[in-house]
Structure formats: C-alpha cells, structure tokens
Amino acid sequence: MAQAQALHKNPFKAKALSQLLIKFSAPAVAGMFVNAVYNIISRIYVGQHIGALGIAGISILFPLGLLFLGFSALVGVGANALFSIRLGEKRTEEAQQILGNAFVLLSILSGVITLGTYLFLDPVLAFLGADQEVLPYARAYTQTVMPGYFLFGISLGLNNFIRASGNPKTAMGTQLIGAGINLVLGPIFIFVLDWGMRGAALATVCGQTVSFAWIMLFFTRKNSLYRLRWRFFRLKWHIVWASMTIGFSQFAFQMASSMLNVILNHALLKYGGNVAISAIGIAISVNTIITMPLLGLSQGAQPLIGYNHGAKKYKTSIQTLKMAIRWGTVITTAGFILIELFARQVVSIFNSTDQQLIYLASYAVRVLNIMLPFVSLQILTTSFFQAVNKPLQAALLSLSRQVLLVIPLVLILPLFLGLNGVFFSPPIADAISVIVAVKLLKNYFDRHKQNFFFSKKHSVR
Which of 183, 197, 171 has its CA nearest to residue 39? Predict the structure, then answer.
C-alpha cells in the first residue's frame, strides 16, 4: 500500500513515456504559445494605432528583453536542471537550497539590469539602434516597461521550478494570467485612453505584476511542497557555480542573440531604414509564435530527462529526447507551411495600410523561416545536453548559431547582397547549426549504444 502511494505521489512515474511528456509538455507548450502572443500583442496594437515607427520603437528594445532572458536562463534554467537531478537523487534538502539561491540571484541580476537601463537610457537605446526618428517612441516605451521587465526576469526563472516540481499546469497559469491581462488592457490603454507607447508598456507591466504575484503565492503558501524559505536565501558558492555552469549555454545563446539583434538593428537601419527594422520585428514576432511552443516542449522534456539521468535511467532520458524531436518537427513543419502560404495575411495583422511595410515584412517572414522545419532538432538537442549536465556541448550548440555563424554573416553578406544579405544570414546559420547538432547527438547516442532516431516505444518502469 505504501509503495502504491509513493508511486502516486511521484509526478515522474507513469505507464508510458508519452503520457509523461504530454503531462509536462502540453501545459508548457500552451503556456509558451500564450507567452509568444503576449510578447507580440504590443506590436500588433502599436502597429495598428501608430504605424511602422511604433513597431520599430518596440523592436529596438528586443535585445534588452533578450538580456533579461539570458540572465534568467543563466540562473533559472541551470538551477532548474540541477534541481531536477537532485530530486531524482532524492536529495530534497539541497533541491530546496537551489530554489532559494535561484530566487536571490534572479532578483539581484534583474535589479542591476533595470537600474542600469534607467541610468543610461538614451545611450542604451542609441546603442540598440534607435535613431532620432525612432528614439522618442523607444524612450516612452522603455521608461514605462522596465518594472515589468524586472519582474519578468524573476518570474521566468522561477516558473521553471514550478514545472520541475510536478506542477506544469500551474506553470502554464503564470503565462495565461499575464497574457490575458495584457490582451484586455492593451487596447484600453492604447486606443480608448490614447496613451500610445506608454499605454502598451503599462499593459505589459500590469500583466507581469500579476504573473509574479501568482508565482510568489505558489512558493510561499503553506501547502507547497517546495517553498521559498529565508534559511535557503544565503548564497552557496557550489550551488551558484553549478547552476551557472549548466545554464551558461542558454545564457550564451541569449547574450549572443541580444548582440546579434543589436548588430541586426544597425545593419537594417543602414541598408533598409526604419521600415526594415519594423519588417524584421514583425518577422521575428511571427517566428516566435512557432518557436515558443517548441521551447515549451523543451521545458516539458527537460525535467523528465534530468530526473531519469539523475536516477541513472539513461535509456529513458534518450527516448524522451527522441520523442520530443519528432513532436517538435511536426509543430515547426506545420508552422512553416502556414507562413509560406499566408505570409501577407499574417503580416497585415500588424499593419493593414502601409503597403511598403506589408511587402517587405512578408518577404522577411518567408526568408527568415526557410529552415523552420529543422530547428526543433537544434533547440531540443541543446536542452538535452543541459539536462544531462553536459554544458560544453550545450554551449557549443548555442554559440555555433548565434556567435560563430550569424554575426559574421550579418557583417559580411550585406556588403555583397545589401538588405538581402541581412535577411538570409539567419537561415544559413540555422542550416549549419543543425548539422552540428546532428553530429554531437549521434556521438552521444553511439556512446550509450542507442540508435539515432527511430526505435520501439519505451515504457517507464
């Protein structure tokens, strides 16, 4: 009887691996899809109300958002992988310590970025690519939205722990609540009250505030299995170092993405003007709608992979990755087909009157997503190596696309191809990084005597 109860309480036990992956990934996929919508709501409202310059003002800030994502991943993703491994090893006390340390680090890092942005606002925006025409729009948005970014950096990191502790639906609720509030308040603040850029930013802040409160309630209520306690807030160097080591690949990926987008903004401004920045901002938003659910699948699979790796069930962790890649490929292929067929209709959601913007954004959307059916392999392989505590392989995969490939391509190709060189750089880098992922993954599978992709269904015992 006691054994049956223990099995019931363990969120990582089920008859079939597919059931577990659905249990953990479905809420994460839904949540990340909502999060993607959340992130582009402001661009849609601003694009319809203000136009191309408003979209450019928000798009300019994208590298700063990636900065928050990067530091959140450095702590949150890394500590979460360590947290899952410790749960698999039945070391609950250390898992609690990891949670407390992660909260403190996330708060410190998000606070430093927020304060630094306020102190050097105009230089930061100029560095990100804002010229004198876009600067007023970018400044108005940034001044208001930064408190939301601060809370976002903490919430995103802690939400990983909610999922890893066996509560994927609660983790999804974090994103649903914030997105819902932003969706409702956005048009009221922008169109009804005519607050423009500040209204869009304020709607985002309101959504992030409620999401943060939801997370804090989960980790402070008395019936929570894993709680934030004062005694676990004292930073432990071995936990900080181990967490950051595991999370470094995601951190490097987001930092490189941030720097890439800064370089991209300046290249777009040089070769296409602010309308090109707006066009690529729309293209990235559309790409995010498809890849965010893929990241949700990755987040759902990661605790399963980490738990089974910690329990020395290596075959099960590998089977989880295989299944996730197959599912992810279905998602990205479906998205690719829809984008290529209906690019103009999708772009018109952001602005239905500016024909120059619609034409250029439609072209950018199609080019940017040429390699979309294959990116699931690269993203999920990176997440897999994080979960099994292989930070070097994970870092190589992240950096191979963003630093070693895209940045040089963005700097070199436009010299010969102009604006086309900017647009084609990301898909070329995607193609090469997928090849690197296949090579690393095949080597890992060979060492564990596993076939590369297709195998019989595997049950979790």
Answer: 183
